[in-house]
Design a protein that fits this description.
It is a single chain. This protein is of the alpha/beta class. The protein has 13 helices and 13 strands. The strands form two sheets. It has a nine-stranded parallel beta sheet with strand order 1-3-2-4-9-8-5-6-7, sandwiched between helices. Helix 1 runs parallel beside helix 3 (68-76), helix 4 (98-114) crosses helix 5 and helix 5 packs parallel to helix 6. The protein is globular and about 65 Å long.
Length: 385
């Protein structure tokens, strides 16, 4: 099995644990070390996996190295009131070719996901997201990907798969299991008008940096509906995360990316979470490594707060609101547990009327009451019909 190819956590990070409190994160998880080998995955629910592949990074040579710096800060943190068993499985080394690395990543992640273990991927270049996507092939289910990035990464398929065109491969390659792609935090001047128009044509979702900065809660429904979450550290402003050769002055703040990570963790649908494009040679005082450790901490915190909540399973704990918009009745559901909202989308399949629920916000409900179709509802309706 490919999992046997994993390299143990480096001695530097493992030795750092010995200096920490018995209550620290590093003392509470099982770790792949040279001494102990790969840990038993029995009852493990979250697995940290480093990927040392960076050859697909565009203008960010050096990413995928020194991932132990992130672990150092993660291990010394204190866990919350967590009940999930966590393992650090070490690192996936670079293959002879990038395609070899993709294959190993795909195989290992597929094995973890089938065991109901959520992989937390520390990269490496963001094109690893493609291998993460392919890990779901055998499951034959529609997938939603959320990318936190200042670019859409559609690019051109020529000359080869890289961090700026991996989405093009996801959309074009078969089997095509992608149902929806959402981008959080894009900056218009980094994306051509043709790419922006294509996003709209494919009924994908894109939230400008200004929208996210104005109200971070607007991204929660998007993350609640995600299977795969991929974060490019270049989406964070340079002052908060310097360790990326593509870092720019504007972007998300550190606390915002931690909030996004927590939203991703809370979503019971998210089954893989990746952070990419960390380049240690630009990491002054290891600030970015520290921030990444906090992002992982918040994701795990969110996972420990997950609750079984979906109106179609049991409607007794939900309030139903019916809104008429242009002769179309739209049903909204609000949870009594969390006060989160869903909206029903009806469509026809094989001449039979069916329906699905997608997460939404209270603002979407208010928008419908103002006789305007909510954007998330409208894009899903057009995609299904």
């Amino acid at each position: 099995m490919s999992i046997d190819l994993l390299l143990p956590v480096e001695d530097m990070a493992a030795a750092h644990i010995a200096m920490q409190s018995d209550l620290s994160f590093g003392r509470k998880i099982v770790i792949h070390t040279k001494k102990d080998g790969i840990p038993d995955l029995e009852n493990v629910k979250i697995a940290i996996v480093g990927v040392m592949e960076g050859r697909g990074a565009v203008d960010n040579v050096g990413t995928g190295m020194n991932l132990e710096k992130v672990r150092k800060y993660l291990y010394q943190m204190f866990p919350g009131n967590w009940h999930l068993k966590i393992a650090d499985l070490g690192n996936i080394p670079k293959g002879k070719e990038t395609g070899d690395t993709y294959f190993i990543v795909q195989d290992i992640l597929s094995e973890l996901i089938k065991k109901d273990i959520v992989p937390v991927i520390i990269g490496g270049s963001q094109d690893i997201t493609y291998a993460n996507y392919r890990a779901y092939d055998s499951m034959e289910k529609p997938l939603n990907i959320v990318s936190v990035d200042n670019r859409f990464d559609i690019g051109e398929m020529y000359p080869s798969l890289n961090s700026h065109n991996y989405l093009h491969y996801i959309v074009m390659d078969k089997p095509n299991n992608l149902f929806n792609y959402s981008n959080l935090g894009f900056q218009t001047f980094f994306n051509s008008q043709e790419e922006i128009d294509l996003m709209d044509k494919l009924f994908f979702e894109a939230y400008r940096l200004g929208e996210v900065n104005h109200d971070i809660t607007c991204v929660e429904p998007v993350l609640r509906d995600a299977d795969i979450v991929s974060i490019d550290m270049g989406a964070i402003r340079m002052s908060d995360a310097q360790a990326n050769n593509n870092a720019v002055p504007n972007g998300l703040y550190g606390d915002q990316i931690c909030a996004i990570s927590r939203y991703a963790g809370i979503s019971r649908k998210v089954s893989s979470f990746g952070i990419y494009e960390y380049n240690p040679k630009y990491d002054q005082r290891e600030q970015t490594a520290h921030l990444m450790a906090q992002m992982i901490w918040y994701f795990i915190e969110g996972c420990n707060l997950r609750i079984d909540e979906y109106p179609f399973e049991s409607k007794k704990d939900y309030k139903k609101y019916m809104v008429m918009v242009e002769n179309e009745t739209i049903n909204f559901f609000k949870s009594d547990k969390s006060e989160r909202w869903w909206v029903e989308v009806k469509y026809f399949h094989n001449n039979l009327e069916k329906s699905t629920l997608i997460p939404c916000t209270y603002q979407d409900y208010l928008t419908a009451n103002n006789q305007i179709f909510p954007e998330r509802w409208l894009k899903t309706f057009r995609k299904l019909n």
